[in-house]
Specification:
The protein is α/β, with parallel strands linked by helices. The protein has one domain (6-141). It contains 6 helices and 5 strands; from the N terminus they run αβαβαβαβαβα. The chain has a 3-stranded parallel beta sheet. Helix 4 (80-83) links the parallel strand 3 (67-69) and strand 4 (101-106).
Length: 160
């Protein structure tokens, strides 16, 4: 069964919009295979990499200036263990020091933000985007990430 939820469609839509800007590139990295339904909705000029964690295809990940994690409703993506290949999802170890910035989009569930301090030991510049100000205050006010952490969004790579 192919799964394709709203977050996945919004990711491709946002990536297509960013890619249409003259001074930016946007790369979509998918943990697993992308459904045919999603492929049909992707912009034709969009750079998409599937099965990044399954196949340890990390070069596109390391080429980014900034990584925006869209499906951060899942606790796994906010944990250091996920990125180090120590979770049940995959065994691929990412060299976190090679990722200069990460932003997590918290759409409906914000509790995964509690995992960010562990990840912040390896990625200094962690940012958050929340669906509303209530979520922002819930996350930031609870001290989930350091008070000095930048909190503005960015999700692009400048062309090299």
């Amino acid at each position: 069964m192919e799964m394709a939820g709203g977050s996945e469609f919004r990711t491709l839509e946002m990536a297509g919009a960013i890619s249409s800007l003259p001074d930016y590139e946007c790369v979509v990295l998918a943990e697993r295979a992308i459904s045919s339904k999603l492929w049909n909705s992707a912009a034709k000029n969009l750079e998409v990499h599937e099965r990044v964690m399954e196949d340890s295809k990390l070069d596109p990940l390391y080429s980014l200036d900034h990584l925006l994690v869209i499906n951060s409703d899942s606790k796994d993506f906010a944990t250091r263990e996920y990125w180090l290949g120590k979770s049940a999802r995959h065994k691929c170890a990412v060299q976190l020091k090679r990722i200069p910035q990460m932003t997590f989009l918290f759409n409906f569930i914000v509790s995964p933000a509690c995992q960010l301090p562990g990840l912040q030991r390896s990625v200094e510049d962690i940012r958050i985007i929340t669906a509303n100000s209530k979520f922002f205050h819930e996350i930031h006010g609870a001290g989930s990430i350091s008070a000095s952490a930048p909190l503005s969004p960015a999700a692009t790579r400048k062309p090299h």
